[in-house]
Automatic annotation (TrEMBL):
The lineage of its organism: Bacteria, Bacillati, Actinomycetota, Actinomycetes, Pseudonocardiales. SMART domains: HTH_XRE. Transmembrane segments: none annotated. CDD domains: HTH_XRE (cd00093). This is Helix-turn-helix transcriptional regulator.
Amino acid sequence: MNNRAEVNDFLTSRRAKVTPEQAGLPTAGQRRVPGLRRTEVAALAGMSVEYYAKLERGQLAGVSPGVLEAVARALQLDDAERAHLLRLAQEANGSGALLRPTRKPKQRAIRPSLQWTLDSVTAPAIVVNLRQDLLAANLLGRAMYSDVYTDSAGVPNFGRFTFLDPAARRFYPNWNVAADMLVANLRTAAGVDPRDKGLHDLVGELSTRSDEFRCRWGAHNVRIHGTGRKTFHHHVVGDLDLAYESMELRAEPDLIMTIYTAEPDSSTAQALSLLASWAASETSIVPSPER
């Protein structure tokens, strides 16, 4: 990832998202581009337009945290966007590599104790890495994501499934929302580890094969994947409305565990019970975890 180009694209895209009305500015005069002008961002951030223009050209090396925070306030960045801007500045300073722990290869066997932990969870549970490879799951998680496991190319990947597998349009009833979230997760991962060759290869593949992905990647949206609700349509048990909690694993910070739960006594809770019965009787079509 070219740091200056990434900074330029990110700041430009954030500026385009903020309207003068949202910033409390007058709207007089015709505007050739959406969002705020550079002069307006500079005024809101308390700096000269020449200095802000330099930042938007990608020159973040040596920029103080106070200046970054002023830009973040002017552009109304959320927590995920602020963190992304900070990572870009650290990369520009050459400190990003020092702050990142040495990472193991992304595709690897899961520790047996981690698989035991997953197997002890009674709800669907999975482990992914930052580039959204599906590395491990418990029995109910593998049953829930059985469509994703049909990819015989290697380690299942949610990016390839979402944009290249027609089954994803049925599995995600709100496909556009799921696609937006997936790309935002990948864009965030690119900021965390910009030297991840596997992620570069994945983005290149998806950009070449999917116009939907390429358009979303160019939007430069990022997000913090923590908690929320998701809806699915499973080909055996039907609709699932699930809450999820995602957490980084302290022993391996590039891995994220997600556990899905249903509201007690709901139709989704009943569907999960059916899914568990189906999984127990159909283990031959649900791949076993890699040991």
